[in-house]
Structure formats: C-alpha cells, structure tokens
Write a structure and sequence with these properties.
alpha+beta, nine-stranded antiparallel β-sheet, three-stranded antiparallel β-sheet
Length: 277
C-alpha cells in the first residue's frame, strides 16, 4: 500500500508512461489531466499511483485520434457507462480503419505483382493460368462513348461503391469473345472495376473461376490484333475454346507518361475443346 500512496515527480510519472514531461504540463494547462499535488512553494507537480490508469486511458484515446475536446468532456463526466460508449465508438472507428488498411494492402500487393510481372514478362509468351471467381462493377460503352463520358461513369461507380480513391480498385476494359472471333478487335463493350472487398453480387458481372489464357502486348491497334491472332493460334494448338469476355488491364500506367508505352495484359476464360477430351 505504501507505493500506492507515494507521490511521483512529473519526470518519474512521465517516464513511467513513456511520454515527455511537456505532455503532462500541457494536459494540466488545458484542463485535461491535473497532477495530484502541486507544491505551494516551488510549483512542482506530483502524481500518484491511482492516476496511472486514468492517464493510460487518455493516451489510448489520443492514439486513436480522439479529439482533445471529446476526451476532456469524457474526463469531466467520467463513468463506466460513458467510457463504455466512448470505447464502443472507437472500436467501430478502428474496425473501419482496419478494413480500409486491408484494402490498401491488397491494392499494394496488386501493384507489386504487376511490377514483378513487368520485370520478368516475355511479351511473346502466351500461357494458361487459374483464376478465382471475381465480382466486377461494369459500365456499358461503345465506340461512340466519349472519353469524358467514360470518366464520368467510372467516377459515378467509384462514388456508388464508396471508393475513396480510384487506386482503391483495379480497372480495365472488356471485349466479347464473339467480337474477337469476328475480327472486331476494338469493339470494347464494357469498362470494369474490380472492388477489392466483399460486396453483394446483385447487378455485378461475375468473372468466372477457372482456366484463363494470358498474353501481353504494347498498346497499339496493330499490336493488339497480332496478339489476339496469336492467342487464337495458341488456343487451337492446345485444344482450348475461348469464352465470355477478354479482360484487358494496363499493367504499367503508374510508371509511364505516354499512352504508347502502355503494356496491356489480356486474360480470357478458356475451356477444353471436345476434340481434345
């Protein structure tokens, strides 16, 4: 019990809680947290054992970016019920921040994977990969849809799904396989946005799980035509049938200044031809 009644100097108390003496002096000046005793002659501040848990609560709330005025109001009306309410609010805020950080991490991983692909890719290589099911937000476009209109529609979708920044999701264009087989290599019919967190599937485009053929080309009409022709040849050689849509994504747009330097990744769902079963 002796240690609980012993007074600590401001330096000892600050050191005990891993903070600067000036922080305790500021808390005292703004009426947030006062010392237990102030020496009448020299004005030295002293704190007691029981104040430690109170200060730790304040430091925790400050770490969570709770405004000083809100903490001061809590301190004036401190009770189990008021602390419970305040902590519940902060738990909810923290959950939201953690969810956002998870999204940011997934976005960073996506960009990292793209950069790894850029550094190791062979533009002439065509291969097959396995992909998991993915939900995409899509907007319909045609050759008559202006660039400004496309931007407007994308902005509307990012706002609708509460994306704070466009970099919170990956995006690209889609071409129906039927158009490709008809030689309409520029017949883009949709823009897509891949939302990096779970959302309800109603009204979304489902990019199916399964086997995909993957290829790359430098962004020009001539290169895309040649790339798709090579894909057709690859599919025929390996007994594969293209289906659904071709999903095109620019891999390096965050490290280039000119459109002609863009490297485009193509992924198309494929099935095994009956002739190869």
């Amino acid at each position: 019990m002796e240690k609980k009644s012993k007074l600590l100097t401001i330096g000892q108390f600050a050191s005990l809680h891993g903070i600067n003496k000036k922080t305790l002096m500021w808390y005292d000046e703004i009426g947030l947290f006062h010392p237990a005793v102030i020496h009448p002659e020299n004005g030295y501040r002293y704190y007691n054992y029981y104040q430690s848990s109170i200060l730790e609560n304040i430091l925790l709330l400050r770490e969570l970016d709770v405004p000083i005025d809100e903490i001061r109001l809590f301190m004036k009306n401190r009770s189990a019920a008021s602390l419970q309410r305040l902590l519940q609010e902060q738990i909810e805020n923290l959950d939201q921040r953690m969810a956002h950080l998870k999204v940011v991490r997934e976005t960073m991983v996506h960009h990292y994977q793209n950069m790894t692909t850029l550094l190791t890719m062979d533009l002439s290589e065509i291969c097959t990969i396995e992909k998991e099911e993915c939900c995409l937000v899509t907007v319909d476009i045609s050759e008559d849809t202006s660039f400004d209109k496309q931007v407007e529609m994308i902005m509307a979708e990012t706002k609708k799904y509460q994306l704070r920044h466009l970099h919170d999701a990956s995006y690209g264009t889609m071409i129906a396989v039927e158009s490709l087989y008809s030689g309409k290599y520029g017949d883009y019919s949709r823009l897509f946005i891949e939302i990096p967190y779970p959302i309800r599937k109603e009204g979304l485009h489902i990019q199916p799980a399964g086997k995909y053929v993957r290829a790359f080309y430098r962004d020009s009409g001539e290169n895309s035509v040649l790339c798709y022709q090579n894909i057709f040849e690859y599919a025929a050689t390996h007994g594969l049938v293209l289906s659904g849509f071709s999903y095109e994504v620019i891999l390096n747009e965050n490290v280039i200044d000119r459109a002609e330097d863009a490297l485009v990744q193509i992924e198309i769902p494929v099935k095994t031809s009956d002739n190869f079963l």
